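ARCHIVE CARD
Drawer: 12
Card no.: 0347
Subject: one protein chain, sequence and derived structure
Cross-reference: see card 0346
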Amino acid sequence: MKASVSEAASGLSLSRLRALTAVAEEGSYSAAARRIGVSHSAVAQQIRDLERVYEIHLFDRVRGVMRPTPTCLELCDIGNRMQEAERDAVRVLARRGPTGQHRLRVGLGNSMPGIAIVGQVLAQHPSLTVTVESGSHQDIMAAVSRREVDVAVLPDLPADTRFRRAPVLSQEVVAIVSPDNPMADQHEVTLERLVASQLVFRSPGSSTQKIVDRAFRQAGFAPQPRLTADTRDAVYEAVALGIGVGFMWRFGTYRSDTVHRIKVPEFRSRVDEVVFALADERNVLIDLFFTVAAQFRPDVKMQV
């Protein structure tokens, strides 16, 4: 006998559709359970409940793999659309803070010029709150793609039709040294001289390090760093303490208190610092960020 209306209502839920799509895509209860963060038995029970209430067969086991039936695939399509709608709802709610203020989530590869743009946005929208996520080039692109941040600023953003984008400023990578370093009074320094120095590198995934590695490689050098750091702040502090020579984007920070920036001729290319967001992600706050970025110019503090 088919399920009554009340039984059907109790049998169908977003959590059960989530379990269903996970099993269909992963091929087993255990893999699905790991993916959605529940127990193996809970996933199996969700599927059994759907099959019992609706008197339907959802999976065939073929050589140990759970294969979805045609009806199951139809339900998976609906379940995926519902989960996307759930994510849309979470994004809408995330634009409001705990007290109801508007909130914008911003991803930054470098502190500057992103923080300067955030400051100007806040000045134009006093009721706005902003959360900032910093990370490597790869981390921030992934956060935008997963809609974990609304808008981001990165240097040397690759062409990608998923994103709307706007260049902010053009800049290059420079060497940074402590005030007591013998090179501190130099305007330029070559890779040949740098390769003989103690060096501080960023970890893989950094846009800065990619340019540094490429330049050394093209010049025929393979330097081994004295220290490898996973954040730009750690590189800055290591340089300030005299551990070695590091590298950063020229406008990567307002700070000029303890390090000197030196041009490296072999870092020939200048790249754009780019504001970007998903092409289909449009609202008043993201548009405001783009508008402010389009009017942004580095001030005197950033010209060091």
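Annotation on reverse: Residues 4-9, 300-304 have pLDDT under 50 and may be disordered. The first helix runs from residue 5 to 11.
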